[in-house]
Each structure stands twice: as structure tokens, then as C-alpha cells.
Amino acid sequence: MAQTIALSPAGAKFIGTLEGFRAECYDDGGPGKGNCTIGVGHLVHLGVTKPADHKQWSTITYEHALVLLQADAHRNGVVAIEQNIKVPLTQPQIDALISLCFNTGPGALGPGHAVTNAVNSKPKGGGAAAMQAWRSV
Fold first, then answer.
1. Quick one: which of 105, 84, 83, 94 has its CA closest to 5?
2. Between the CA of residue 35 and those of 21, 42, 47, 61, 106, what are the distances in Å?
3. Roughly how many angstroms between the first and final C-alpha of the chain, as a whole number?
4. Spatial CB neighbours of 30, under 8 Å, sequence gap ≥ 6
5. CB distance 27 to 36 below 8 Å
6. pLDDT tens, position by position, for the chain (137 residues)?
7. Domains of the chain, start order
8. pTM over 0.85
């Protein structure tokens, strides 16, 4: 049976806490600053926020922001994991990889990327030796 890949509710809340919640459109402060964003980092469009954006989006609830986050997580993280990660993952590992992709884009788990290679070379069995192997990849 294939593993189901999805951002957990706890993972969504973790990302939401890190990103911070804004109920109205704002210009993000990350790389490529000045893009219209809402909720917990949902990109509305490239470019600065305009009055029409405030009119269209008005205000959203935190729950709506988490729905947008789940859609963004699927598009940017889940698909990348399903396409490129070949080893079983725990839910916290899935959440961590989705968080990475949420912030850097799905290319962070692209074919041949260092993170993808490190995850796919994950030793079986866990424990201290497995952690050391992950760190040295």
C-alpha cells in the first residue's frame, strides 16, 4: 500500500505559527519582497497589494488561512514528495519537508537536489547511527 502524503493539522498549525497570521492582504517581507500575500503566507499574486486586493479578499479567518495553507502545501510540497522521495517517511518528516517546500518552493525537493538525495539515502533502523548518516550526507 502506498504511503499517504499530506500536511498534518499539527504541521499546518506549526507553519501557521512560524509564518504569523494576517487577516488582510499585505506585502510579504521575504525574498522578492512586495508580493501580495494573505493569511499565513498565501501568495495572492506577484506584485504589491492594491486596493482591489483588499476589496476582493476583505478579511479572512484563521481557519480559512489554514485551508489556503493546505492547498499551498499540496501544490508546493506534497507533489514534490510524491514525485521525488522514494523512502517511507514519518508524519513529522513529511511535515518538515512540506514546511521546507512551503518556504523555498518545490524545487527544494527536485530530482538530484541535495535534500532529496539525503532523504532518499536515509538509512533504515533509525537511532544515533542513522542520524549521523543523515547529517554527513
1. 94
2. 16, 10, 4, 20, 18
3. 29
4. none
5. yes
6. 468 899 999 999 899 898 899 999 999 876 557 899 999 999 999 999 999 999 999 999 999 999 999 999 999 899 999 999 999 999 999 999 999 998 888 889 999 888 999 899 876 655 555 555 555 44
7. 9-136 (1.10.530.40)
8. no
